[in-house]
Each structure stands twice: as structure tokens, then as C-alpha cells.
Specification:
It is a single chain. The protein is 26% helix and 24% strand. With 92 residues, the protein is of the alpha+beta class. It has one domain. It has a four-stranded mixed beta sheet, with no helix packed on it. Strand 3 and strand 4 form a beta hairpin. The longest helix is centred in the N-terminal third of the chain and has 24 residues.
């Protein structure tokens, strides 16, 4: 599984992550859905990975404003990070 995540979404802990979903993300998405479709949004799908039993099974790619990519591959007991600059030209 490969997850591409905006770096601004990284928070200190699980509780802060859920708080961000309900207090920041949901109100923005709800407002957008009401304007675009005339219906309310909801927090309907939340992915929580508690433990990865197979090394390398989950890879998270963090995308920051500077467009630096950070690839993190989880194993059963560690997370490995690699920093690399993007190969393509920066987006406008």
C-alpha cells in the first residue's frame, strides 16, 4: 500500500490527528460539499494502521510545500525514512 500524504497533515499523536479531522478538515470539507453539491459531508472513512506485520507492506510518501519527498517504509518494529528531491521541475 502506498499512501501519499501532505506534510502539513502530520500531527504529534493519534488524539491530535482525530482532533484535526473533526475540528479542521471536516468543517472545511462540509462547507465545500454544501456549496458544490448542496449536501452535507461527514467523517465516514478513517484509515488507521495499528501494526504492519510484513516489512515494506506500507509506504508513506510525504509531500511538503518545498516539494521534497520523504518516503517512509514501515517494518514490523521500525520506520525507515529516505529524503530525496523531486526529479521533475517544480510545479507552478
Amino acid at each position: 500500500m502506498v499512501l501519499v500524504i501532505g506534510g502539513q497533515k502530520i500531527v504529534a499523536n493519534f488524539t491530535a490527528g482525530l482532533r484535526r479531522i473533526y475540528e479542521y478538515c471536516f468543517p472545511l470539507e462540509d462547507r465545500r460539499a454544501r456549496q458544490a453539491y448542496g449536501v452535507a459531508s461527514g467523517v465516514n472513512n478513517v484509515l488507521i494502521i495499528n501494526h504492519v506485520t510484513t516489512p515494506g507492506r506500507v509506504t508513506a510518501i510525504l509531500v511538503h510545500k518545498t516539494r521534497l519527498l520523504i518516503a517512509a517504509t514501515t517494518s514490523t518494529d521500525r520506520t525507515y525514512f529516505k529524503l530525496r528531491a523531486p526529479k521533475a521541475a517544480p510545479l507552478p
